[in-house]
């Protein structure tokens, strides 16, 4: 007999889903701040990185209190909840699931009590060897409440903490055991710790609020929301420790080539963020420029698919000389998981979120710029919207190369057979989508777009060249697909 956990329903939109967002803040001893309110503000700024769940853990005099649930930040927290979470140190998290389904147990931060104290952890990324580590912990008597890889990470840190003299040493030892992508914040009774994997897959930066409160965040837009000063990015392989208002740094000792996720610049990050020294907005405009060089076409107007396709569309228009226009209007009151009107009415779902502006496109040759194509279903519906609104021609330009390979480092890219580009030519994809022409950014141009970035890139979802060994296939529900029950009564 087997117990099968029900899956969440898929969204109707053909997009790569966001990552997670992490945040941490620590005030010096004796300074009273409302860390929970600051975390709330920062998570609001990071909401684009995860819309499934949110959570905040606060530390008051060494006691950690955590509140989390599924839903948007504004739904999980209110004034009363935040007012009842006093403390001068806090970490926070917004989640999109890349391992494990959507339920409260999988929300973060994860807070536990162990023999040496309290601990709370928030994690952005995906561990390649989570399955092996979880099996090892289970055979040693460990019991898991969630189905995500973050709980595996937490237990691994605790096991290392029992063998060493400090939490930062335990984090560094853990970094030698885990493989994959992780930017994380860790809170102990006295310390706030931030760590970034040796490849630097996921972003993490350091800020300073009121000249004495250190902050860690996935993106600089969270610092801007708080009025904090940007200090620098956490380096790949670096472990930063904040204790009593002092910041110190060490390196885990694992040397390897940096491989920041190039899709942070194409889609994930907010345009106003600066990641590893490079402007996200300018990177997207550069992508549009290269698109116009590689795939020129005669047209009357360039439009972008809101929101992340807009900067690339502006770049395309600027360099090509074709006017930029607003051709698609986004309904900003619809969350990612709004109720669908039925499987036979998916086109209506798209119209609820996006609608064509007839006055901008009727009778015109339109270039529609988007950031990516995953399955291709939504693209076809958007093309129909434009044609129904009177577009004479629709030419689609994509500011990323075709997705041909799954991601194992925290991006929810489906398996190969679910990708439109898998085993198809550009012409075959064009016919399926129904556009007059289709052009993707070349891999060579993609590797140039993040002008000023200090790190190398991981573009394995396009190239298939993974920076570390990966499993043969990705299974985001690896810990909950089928759980065999024991045959005896024990």
UniProtKB/TrEMBL annotation:
Catalytic residues (positions): 20
GO BP field: 'de novo' IMP biosynthetic process; purine nucleobase biosynthetic process
Pathway in which the depicted protein is active: Purine metabolism; IMP biosynthesis via de novo pathway; N(1)-(5-phospho-D-ribosyl)glycinamide from 5-phospho-alpha-D-ribose 1-diphosphate: step 1/2
Cofactor annotation: [4Fe-4S] cluster; Mg(2+)
Chain residues that bind Mg(2+): 308, 370-371
UniProt keyword Iron present: yes
4Fe-4S in keyword set: yes
Enzyme nomenclature, EC number: 2.4.2.14
UniProt family annotation: In the C-terminal section; belongs to the purine/pyrimidine phosphoribosyltransferase family.
Protein's name in the database: Amidophosphoribosyltransferase
Lineage of source species: Bacteria, Bacillati, Bacillota, Clostridia, Eubacteriales
């Amino acid at each position: 007999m087997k117990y099968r956990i029900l899956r969440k329903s898929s969204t109707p939109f053909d997009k790569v889903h966001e990552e997670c967002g992490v945040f941490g803040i620590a005030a010096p001893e004796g300074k009273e701040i409302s860390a929970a309110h600051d975390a709330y503000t920062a998570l609001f700024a990071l909401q684009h990185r995860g819309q499934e769940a949110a959570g905040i853990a606060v530390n008051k005099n060494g006691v950690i209190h955590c509140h989390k649930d599924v839903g948007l930040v504004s739904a999980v927290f209110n004034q009363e909840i935040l007012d009842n979470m006093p403390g001068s140190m806090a970490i926070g998290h917004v989640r999109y699931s890349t391992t494990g389904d959507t339920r409260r147990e999988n929300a973060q931060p994860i807070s536990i009590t162990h023999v040496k104290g309290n601990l709370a952890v928030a994690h952005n990324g995906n561990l390649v060897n989570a399955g092996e580590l979880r099996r090892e912990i289970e055979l040693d008597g460990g019991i898991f409440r969630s189905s995500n890889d973050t709980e595996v990470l937490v237990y691994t840190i605790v096991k290392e903490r029992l063998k060493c003299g400090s939490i930062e040493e335990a984090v560094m030892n853990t970094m030698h055991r885990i493989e994959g992508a992780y930017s994380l914040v860790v809170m102990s009774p006295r310390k706030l710790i931030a760590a970034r994997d040796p490849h630097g897959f996921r972003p993490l930066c350091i800020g300073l609020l009121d000249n004495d409160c250190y902050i860690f965040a996935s993106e600089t837009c969270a610092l801007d929301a708080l009025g904090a000063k940007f200090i620098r990015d956490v380096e790949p392989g670096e472990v930063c420790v904040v204790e009593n208002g002092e910041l110190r740094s060490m390196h885990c000792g694992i040397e390897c080539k940096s491989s920041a996720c190039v899709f942070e610049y194409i889609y994930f990050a907010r345009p106003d963020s600066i990641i590893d020294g490079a402007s996200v907005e300018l990177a997207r405009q550069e992508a549009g420029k290269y698109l116009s060089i590689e795939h020129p076409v005669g047209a009357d107007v360039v439009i972008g698919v809101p929101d992340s396709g807009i900067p690339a569309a502006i770049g395309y228009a600027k360099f090509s000389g074709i006017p930029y226009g607003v051709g698609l209007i986004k309904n900003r009151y619809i969350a990612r998981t709004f109720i669908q009107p039925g499987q036979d009415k998916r086109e209506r779902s798209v119209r609820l979120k996006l609608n064509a502006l007839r006055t901008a496109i009727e009778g015109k040759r339109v270039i529609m710029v988007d950031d990516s194509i995953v399955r291709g279903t939504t693209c076809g519906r958007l093309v129909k919207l434009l044609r129904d609104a009177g577009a004479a021609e629709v030419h689609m330009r994509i500011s990323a190369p075709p997705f041909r390979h799954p991601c194992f480092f925290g991006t929810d890219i489906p398996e190969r057979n679910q990708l439109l580009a898998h085993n198809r030519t550009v012409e075959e994809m064009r016919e399926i989508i129904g556009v007059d022409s289709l052009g993707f950014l070349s891999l060579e141009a993609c590797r140039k777009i993040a002008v000023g970035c200090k790190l190398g890139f991981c573009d394995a979802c396009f190239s298939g060249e993974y920076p570390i060994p990966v499993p043969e296939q990705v299974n985001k529900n690896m810990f909950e697909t089928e759980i065999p029950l024991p045959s005896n009564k024990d």
